[in-house]
Design brief:
By secondary structure, the protein is an alpha/beta fold. The protein is 37% helix and 20% strand.
């Protein structure tokens, strides 16, 4: 059995570094992309990805635009996509879920909540 592998999509290298270190310390593997377009190209391959953490506020293509495109990739239709955002205002969670996210986590990341989400994969 392979370690669970998480794709981190975030335009901020500091966020990628912190999330990768956290996941590694909890026995997850991670790979990352700094933009949604690059992530979509990766997701069209047969790369093993068990879950996706996507920043909702990125330049070029944000998570609200990218999630439906991810879910339209036949082989990724059932891959859990978790929205990650600093926008923790009323209605943001619902907006992420309407975009197709399977769940939502706000920044700063609550590690226990993150592990709870990933425990379901």
């Amino acid at each position: 059995m392979h370690k669970k592998r998480v794709l981190i999509i975030d335009d901020d290298a500091r966020n990628i570094f912190a999330l990768s270190a956290t996941l590694r310390s909890k026995s997850y593997e991670s790979i990352s992309r700094t933009g949604a377009r690059e992530a979509l190209e990766l997701l069209k391959t047969e790369e093993i990805i068990d879950a996706i953490l996507i920043d909702m506020m990125m330049p070029d293509m944000d998570g609200y635009e990218a999630i439906p495109l991810i879910k339209n990739i036949e082989s990724r239709r059932n891959t859990p996509v978790f929205a990650v955002t600093a926008q923790a205002m009323v209605g943001d969670k619902e907006k992420c879920l309407r975009a197709g996210a399977d769940d939502y986590i706000s920044k700063p990341i609550n590690v226990d909540h993150l592990l709870q989400l990933l425990g379901s994969i």
